[in-house]
């Protein structure tokens, strides 16, 4: 899963980037409204954290332009505690949620997890595919009762496939959602990560759809359908 942080305070921006990275996100950052606007319009994100008090271009204007351009990623806005009018303006511009400063990073993470789940059509914090489960709160993966150890990129890939279960995901889409902007993106490495995941969770759980991409499936459902 991939996130964008648009925040002009360098310490807060760095702190948020570290928190999201440690929680399994690929993270891009922008220090002003113009850079944030450009990234939001040109890169695909699963969630965005947007400060409203930005230099060069304020957050409300950035959000309005994103929405006018058709960008649908969930956006969490950050506002000053005593500026209730900013919250109203943010929601009217297309925000999905807000936090007032100062805030606890764990609350921001919880809100982002909820936004990304709802955007993908999930209500529970635990994503399931047969006996394979992904705990979005603890960034852990289980096969039955067994904890599966994954690298950061393996976790991001599986998380994206779990959030979009039963949909065919192209290699290009996976590249766009598991790597940050500065990573040397090579779509061939996707095959490597898929191979590693298959060894850890079972080769029959990630289906290759020739010419299109990959799909996460429940092998139990596949076997039942074949029997019928």
Give me some keywords for this one:
2 domains; Arc Repressor Mutant, subunit A; Rossmann fold; alpha/beta; disordered C terminus; five-stranded parallel beta sheet; 228 residues
Q: What does this protein look like?
A:
With about 230 residues, this protein is an alpha/beta fold. It folds into 2 domains: about 1-120, 3-Layer(aba) Sandwich (Rossmann fold); about 125-225, Arc Repressor Mutant, subunit A (Orthogonal Bundle). About 45% of the residues lie in helices and about 20% in strands. The strands form 3 sheets. The chain has a 5-stranded parallel beta sheet, with helices on both faces. The radius of gyration is 18 Å and the shape is elongated. It starts with a strand and ends with a helix. The model is unreliable at about 225-228 (pLDDT under 50).
Map the helices and strands.
Layout (H helix, E strand, L loop, with lengths): L1 E5 L3 H13 L3 E5 L2 H10 L4 E5 L7 H10 L6 E6 L3 H10 L3 E5 L3 H15 L6 E4 L2 E4 L4 E4 L2 E3 L3 H12 L7 H8 L9 H14 L4 E4 L3 E4 L2 H9 L1
Parallel strand pairs: 1-2, 1-3, 3-4, 4-5
Antiparallel strand pairs: 6-7, 7-8, 8-9, 10-11
Structure at a glance:
The protein is of the alpha/beta class.
Alpha-beta classification: alpha/beta
Give the distance, in angstroms, between the N- and C-terminal Cα atoms: 36 Å
- Total domains, how many? 2
Helix content: 40-55%
- The portion of residues forming beta strands comes to 15-25%
CATH C-level label of the largest domain? Alpha Beta
C-alpha Rg (nearest Å): 18 Å
Strand order of the largest sheet: 2-1-3-4-5
CATH superfamily membership of the largest domain: Response regulator
Q: What overall geometry do the principal axes of the alpha carbons give?
A: elongated
Unreliable stretches = 224-228
CATH fold description of the largest domain = Rossmann fold
- Biggest sheet statistics: 5 strands, parallel
| Count, helices | 9
Instruction: Quickly give the CATH architecture of the largest domain.
Output: 3-Layer(aba) Sandwich
N-to-C SSE string, H for helix and E for strand:
EHEHEHEHEHEEEEHHHEEH
Let me know the average pLDDT: 89
